[in-house]
Amino acid sequence: MKNITDSFVFLGQGPSAGSFGFNTDILATNLINLSVVLGVLIFFGKGVLSDLLDNRKQRILSTIRNSEELCGGAVEQLEKARARLQKVEREAEEFREKGYFEIEQEKGNLINAAFQNLEQLENYKNETIQFEQQRAINQVQQRVFQQALQGALGTLNNCLNGELHLRTIGANIGIFRAMKEITD
User: Are 28 and 1 in contact (CB under 8 A)?
Assistant: First the structure.
């Protein structure tokens, strides 16, 4: 430290009586040179440094503005996407509800159609049973009639003699003539 202060004292005294000399103290001369260079750099370089800092500041500010614009655009797109999503969700819910309603309607229609088919089948069954019953009754009646007729013919053949047979035929012919006269 003493060397540094000595060099300033030496500078303050100036050269002695017309002699010019070199200061060989490296620390003292380096410190003076550095202070002179820094002073010159600060004096002349502050404009350049301030321009560089201003340019850097402008680039940072423009980057921030661009980022804010992009962020605003992204937020706007996000809001639009959310709105579209909500719309699509509402439409999907409507389709789902409509689908459930249509399914329930179709289910009811199928159940009604099944009941109608069952009723028709029941009616067909009842008609078939009635038809078969009537057919069976008719067959039984025909057999009973045939058996009764055969029995009556057998009885008549046994009981009738020629004269009774001719009188019966004559009576039947008379009945047929009377019927013919009535119809004419």
Answer: no
- Which residue in this structure is represented by tokens 């047979």? 165
Q: Residues 45-85: pLDDT tens digits?
A: 778 878 888 999 999 999 999 999 999 999 999 999 999 99
Q: Please count the structural domains in the chain.
A: 1
Query: How much is the average pLDDT of 141-163?
Result: 81
**Amino acid at site 16:** S
For residues 128-142, give the mean pLDDT: 92
Average pLDDT on 141-153 reads 87
Q: Give the three-class secondary structure for 114.
A: helix
User: How many CB atoms are closer than 10 A to CB 52?
Assistant: 11
Rounded to an integer, what distance in angstroms lies between the CA atom of residue 131 and that of residue 137? Answer: 10
pLDDT at residue 18 is higher than 60: no
Print the domain residue range for 123: 31-143
CA distances, 21 to each of 32, 34, 125 (Å): 16, 20, 144
In a domain, 70, yes or no: yes
Instruction: Report if residue 8 sits inside a domain.
Output: no
- Domain for residue 90, yes or no? yes
The identity of residue 119, as a single letter, is E
179 part of a folded domain: no
